[in-house]
Amino acid sequence: MPTLAAEPRVRLTVVGDLMLTRGVPDAAAALAPMQARLAGADITVGNLESTLSKAGSPTQGGDSFGAGPELLRPLREAGFDAISLANNHTGDFGDRALTETVEALSGAGIVPFGAGRDLDAAARPAVVERAGITFAFLGFNAIGETPRATRSDPGAFSVRMPPRTGPLVDADLRRVEREVRAAEKVADVVVVLPHWGTQYTHRPEAIQRHVARRLVVAGADLVAGGHPHWVQPLERVGGVPVIHSLGNFVFDMDFMSQTMEGVVLEATFRGATLEDLNLVPYRMDPETFAPRVVGGREAARILGQARP
């Protein structure tokens, strides 16, 4: 039997919330400073907070984030292998735009997950294999606004839970747990990207910790959250890393200092074993919204937000 040192090594990169339209003047320019880092990983994953189609009417007024397939090339060239659509903006232009967004990503060779034409499609993990190691990525939306996928209707894989979508609906979470357990049977590593929590705070809600524990018990090997737009703590749950929010990666939210910064999660797996995990701090440029790695006191300050 091979020793751990003989197992293949795979480098996984996960970034926070991506919104490459509205006030972002050039998506390719926004991603360019990080392109070598993202493309240099074996697998790169993020959460896209917009549609890639505007085949419908905006559902959130001026906060409806829609673009077209022109974003596919910068995403692909930046190195994204899988994209979560489990968030509160995937439904911003209705059902047709949502399904066209899923199809556009798939057609470009970027595996979408977390939303789809029905519940089974939305719950289906993105499965990516590198060096003989199989990774499964699942996402769920706890914020609302994007419709919940049902057996017959498009939407996001969703969990109703505080603070935005009412008390925890245990049936929703049990469905996620079933999908995590099923993914564990076919993948060496299971990664969950929840869209949850309260905006503009470094403090996770207690319910996030409760849900994270259940995800880990079900078989998650890494949990990386989004939606708060600020960095939230990295904790260990039964030895499994849970970062409650990575912060914004590219987003035109220049009205607060905290919404212009975040961390890139870089994890190295030796076989199915997590060998190393690193958080890389950055700030966005105020004109292009391009994230750039920072060091010194600025890095220490941002990383301090990730401490429990």
Features of the shown structure:
single chain, 308 residues, alpha/beta, Purple Acid Phosphatase, chain A, domain 2, 8-stranded mixed β-sheet, 6-stranded mixed β-sheet, 8 helices
Walk me through what this model shows.
The protein has one domain (about 10-305): 4-Layer Sandwich (Purple Acid Phosphatase, chain A, domain 2). It is about 25% helix and about 30% strand. The chain has helices at about 25-30, 35-40, 70-75, 95-105, 120-125, 170-185, 205-220, 295-305; strands spanning about 10-20, 45-50, 80-85, 110-115, 115, 125-130, 135-140, 155, 190-195, 220-225, 230-235, 240-245, 250, 260-270, 275-285, 290-295. The strands form three sheets. Strands 1, 2, 3, 4, 13, 14, 15 and 16 form an eight-stranded mixed sheet that branches. A six-stranded mixed sheet has the order 6-7-9-10-12-11, with helices on one face. The model has no long low-confidence stretch (mean pLDDT about 95).
